[in-house]
Amino acid sequence: MKINLERSLRRFRNLYYMSYTPRWIIFCIDVFLVSVSLFLAYLVRYDLSVSLMDIDKFLKAGSIVVAIRILTFLIFKPYAGIVRFTNAEDAVRIFYTITSGTILVILANIFTKMYCGAFFMPFSIIVIDFIGLICVMTLFRIFVKLTMAQYQVNSNNAQNVLIYGTDKAAIMTKHALDNSKSPYKILSFFDTANKKAGKNLEGIKIKNISKLESILKKEEVDKLIIAKVKIKPEIKHTVVDLCLKYDVEILTIPKFESWVEGQLSVRQMKKVKIEDLLEREPIKLDEKGIHKEIGGKTVLVTGCAGSIGSEIVRQLTKHNPKEILLFDSAETPMYQIEMILKEEFAFFDYQIVMGDVRDIERVEEVFSQYKPQIVYHAAALKHVPMVEENPREGVKTNVVGTINVAEMANKYEAEKFVMVSTDKAVNPTNVMGATKRLAEIYTQSLNAVSKTSFITTRFGNVLGSNGSVIPRFKKQIEEGGPVTVTHPQITRFFMTIPEACQLVLQAGTLGKGGEIFVFDMGESVKIIDLAKKMVKLSGFKLGKEINISITGLRPGEKLYEEVLNVKENTLPTQHSRILVAKVREYEFKNVKNNYLVFREITKENDNFEIVRNIKRIVPEFKSKNSKYEILDCNC
What we know:
Helix 10 (287-294) packs across helix 18 (497-510) and helix 11 packs across helix 18 (497-510). By secondary structure, this protein is of the alpha/beta class. The chain is 48% helix and 14% strand. The strands form 5 sheets. The protein has a 9-stranded mixed β-sheet with strand order 10-9-8-11-12-13-18-22-21, sandwiched between helices. It contains 21 helices and 22 strands. It has 3 domains: 2-152, no CATH class; 156-272, NAD(P)-binding Rossmann-like Domain (Rossmann fold), CATH 3.40.50; 287-630, NAD(P)-binding Rossmann-like Domain (Rossmann fold), CATH 3.40.50.720. The longest helix has 32 residues, at 123-154. Strand 21 (570-572) and strand 22 (578-581) form a beta hairpin.
């Protein structure tokens, strides 16, 4: 008996995990249900007494009805759906199938009356059969679905899941889990609204988010799915931190636009990324002001193939520019941004302009040919260790390259020149930051003698940019570690690339000329905490499967970036996330004379002489953890 029971369970399990039950089986079951429904309709018509029924007439009439039903089944195919995933669409298809079949039965009944003198079936039976067959076929599918779902929940392989959210997205998440081939058991929904706590949603209890930790302690939870469209960053942090504490995998659902035909599937759910946790409240932009500033104008973006430059290009497409000039020397990345503009944005008002900002002749060709009205200067060398080892190249691009573009913007009377700078230009400790400060000084002083408005924007590290710690940590985790951090106390400010570029466009509209805008970067992040969180989010156990290694500060690297938004250093603007830096102003005549040296000294590869001249013009530049520290005592 025990062996037979185990064999039956195994057969049921095998049936459940088949990709689908063969259609011919469902078809045969539906035909059988037609017969059952018709028989029950006759019984009801004859007061539940078989003796009162004319069996011969029943069999003749039944054969006609079954034949008609089979015809409609073949047309509408109600058997084509997977029964255990039955949904509202399947119920509608059943209704249409049975209704059309019933109409044909009525027409056949009228036909026999006209040509044979009598109805082959009473109309009362047709009506009873219509109602009964809808109920029988629908209930059969619901029964199978519920049975399968209950088996799935009770399966030893079922994963325990919590869902954060109680709106439509959360319900669709539940449906996606129910319809998955893998077994899931949904323990509860969570929400921050107290009024929803204690209520049921599709038979599952809703609990307040304050109860999350107690559930994680008591239950063996495998996954938590964040299924809420809008969630406050602090709530997301709390949920993720608790899940990481109890080794629970965290998933998110994509935006509705990404759902396939309005349906969500488990495959579309992704692990929470570290970038998701560093996002803040959405930035409110003056879209009308930006559109007015850019609309109908020719816009030049230098460094357009880089992480910042390419995102500026993407965002410019929304503001109806007359033409975007894509200027960069990197061939393959330029091709990629061109494909993105064509295929993702369907934007064709652009020109690919290969060239290097160091090449003054090429830069002038671009300005003389296209006459750009707005310039976003994002071309730069920005890797601190690389520029520290190659000061000449850093000066050529970050200083001389900026001078070239700025002078041409001035000569051809561009309306605005917006330069992308960095927080490392604040009291620089490395050559890269110092070269960017030199570029700031030049453009800011040029503004005083130019018709062009020269504006500078500063911000810190951007998530996902080339050279950011995030991609490096991801690669190290994929390779099995270790994840390398330069110092256990090192901290950085972070901003997403879209955030940074939105603020660049907004600052461009606010600027009248000569300002250095700094962005509110939020709270600084401890890099070692970032690394630990990334390891855990990737599903690895810290210290067992992947270790963190301390490698020591790199040349020119600071422990802490300067705080840019303190009241003593900045002034507010109309935008809460943008401030104006209070910095020393320079006279352009003196600046130009001092900068003449850079075109000459970069012809020779004397790094110490180059750095010595940088320190002469930027006295606050004090090298740290660098071979150039000796120059701070002998400048």
